[in-house]
Amino acid sequence: MKPIVTEPLTASAFASFGDVLALKDSPDKIINQGLCGRHHDLARLDFSDGRAGISLFDAEPRSLPYTLDMVERHPEGSQSFIPMTPAPFLVVVAPDDHGKPGTPKAFVTALGQAINFHRNTWHGVLTPLTAPGLFAVVDRIGPGDNLEEFWFDTPYMVVSS
Q1: pTM for the whole thing?
Q2: Residue at 22 is within a domain
Q3: Is residue 158 part of a domain?
Q4: The 3-state secondary structure of 37-72, one letter per residue
Q5: Does residue 124 lie in a domain region?
Q6: Fewer CB in 10 Å around end: N or C, the chain?
Q7: Minimal CA–CA distance to 109: which of 139, 85, 78?
Q8: Residue 64 region by backbone torsions, left for phi larger than 0, else alpha for psi between -120 and 50, else beta
Q9: Cα torsion 1, 106, 80, 36: sign
Q10: How far is CA 134 from the centre of its chain?
């Protein structure tokens, strides 16, 4: 198996694949009688048609090292994963290489980070590293097939840095 070493999730390292959702140094606006900071417009939702929907996912945790044998992408819309517990999770992405995934990259989120995959971005499945794996997911709800899977001939082994 080919090794992939995880790295911390940063906005600059992840920019070509999507958005990192995290608090800014200071909120854009103070709301709710001065008791809440709004960190505004952190991700670009992008759908070919349909509408944005919010679902809850309850994923089984995985551990490192992790065998990566498949990635997927959503050609009709972006997809956001927002953890509902304060625990890091594994994020795997791959650049597009003429319609197939290129060499994957693996990130581990920090506490308080969520992600939004750009439309048509190759990515691994939801991979919490601890239980419970409860996430809010914002993605496209609409007609047609919005899932393409790719199985690697030779799996990768994701290992911690």
Answers
A1: 0.94
A2: yes
A3: no
A4: EECCCCCCCCECCCEEEEEEEEECCCCCCEEEEEEE
A5: yes
A6: C
A7: 85
A8: beta
A9: positive
A10: 14
